[in-house]
Write a structure and sequence with these properties.
This protein has 608 residues and is an all-alpha fold. The chain has 25 helices and five strands. Strand 2 and strand 3 form a beta hairpin. Pfam families: PTR2.
Length: 608
Amino acid sequence: MAEKAQDDKALGRASSIDEKHQYQGEPDGSSVIAGSEGVTEHELATLRHVADRLPYTAWLVVIVEFAERWTYYGTTNIYNNYIQFPIPKGSNNGSVPKIARLGNTVAGALGKGQQKSFAIRTFNSFWVYVTPFVGGILADTLWGRYKTIMIFSIVCLIGHVVLVASASPASLENSNTALGLLILSIIIMGLGAGAIKANVSPMIAEQYTGKLRKETLPSGEVVIKSPAVTIQSMYLWFYAAINFGSCGAISASFLARDNGYWVAFLVPTAIFVLVPFVLLAGRKQYVVTPPRGSILLETFRVIGFALGPRWSINPAETLRAIRRDDFWDPARPSYYGEGQVPAKITWDDEFVGEVGRTLNACTVFLFFPVFWLCYSQIDGNLGTVAAGMTLKGTPNDLIQNLNPISIIIMIPIFDRVIYPFLRKKNINFSPIKRIYAGFLVAGLAMVYASVLESYQNKLTPCRGGEFDKQPAACEIDDEHAATPLNVWIVAGPYILVGMAEIFASITSLEYAFTKAPKRMKSVVMAFAQFQTAISSALNFALVAVNVEEKFVWLFGAFAVSSWVVGTIFFFTFRKLDRRESELNAIGQGDRDGFAGEAAETTTGAGKA
């Protein structure tokens, strides 16, 4: 997955795993690396690393994710118009009458305004990224990942049916009834989608069981088939499936405009019916991880045992205690005398080491809420900006589909051209550097948005006279007032955020999978996704400033925050590049011995 920083450069290798520092063998490098298929240290250091073939079952999981994301984005991407704007004149289902489609009239239904729309959409994002913990617990304790995905796909389908009902003409006769059904559907679908999300991303990587090995290409070149590079490639294509699915919102925008919202919500519901059937099609071929006990709950218990003796009225004293080398000792069975181990301790010392090492590595994710704050602006606020531009029949919520489209175009370029080129040129673009690049590009997207909105405010007809205090996207004569700016100018932030996702979001998926021991992958993935929920909670605090009159400063503040936090992130974690292979080895199969040994030497919650 990741390249090891300076050692790889010295070896002339920008490999994503540097096991040379992990397995010290013969001085001439002739020792075979443990767990590999005859690969020596010298070969690992000198041969080019390439991705292996992806198994058939991995592509089935990709299809599941594609269908699930189509239904998610095919509904949420039109929530902004659905909630914010009223039903156009002459419509009973939210669609735009044919006579008005070439103008600036936008589809709408509930007419609740920008702030209520923002609050509901933010709650939806918060909820869907909190519920992965539910899926993680159930997968680890009762059902395993496969069965958990299957059960919650049915739950999600029920939520979609309720959503379609909320948008029927009969429901829209009373906007409060429709709003109540919408919120109910959000709760049900969020529970299902979140539980699926915690398990589908680790499940896809588990389908690959290959080992480090040599292979001769048709050209005669001998290369290393690297599991880590394979995982990197796998998650790139997994993310491509997410964005192929999110392109479902393209059809949703036109369906809502031309046929009403119940039709726009019905199509994703019909597509979601595919999910259980695809899961059943591969049930005998999937690499299935059975439930292994209460891993998530035990993780919290380990943390609780370690924290218990450290609390103090003085916060500084508590922080010093947490950073002590013996922080984890009270959670280790070996800490207690024979026969005195508390009954609640049901784990061994190695598990405590895994918890400590995994938490240390996964503090990386704590910086991501700021990144997701930038991303959240393309979900609705930029759609509001687009509504005040010259549309010429283009649905304003159609533009946001440029984000997934740009990702789909860029992923093959990064996977087949850019990343292999960097490895070939010995340029070490490690996970930490990639994530940092994501923060920088996300900040640049917000600068673009802020400058665009500032210029838009100068051109809008919603200023002066009776419109003096109106936002840029006000209505004049029952139609959205338009500036001379073409709506496609707003494409810039969507494309830049897409590039930022390739750098930061995809890398976070790799990081969550490779840094977690086998028995804690759902835990770590849920924690990584929980950062989006934290971002949504922060957005709740910003509801008062999420009005168009303040967009210029809002976007600008997010840009500065992304750059500052990203820079702090880089200088905080850049040393992790040197421990990349060590962190990848935590609790991994043949390397358990190494992981256990390292866990004994890695104590103290404050160590990286």
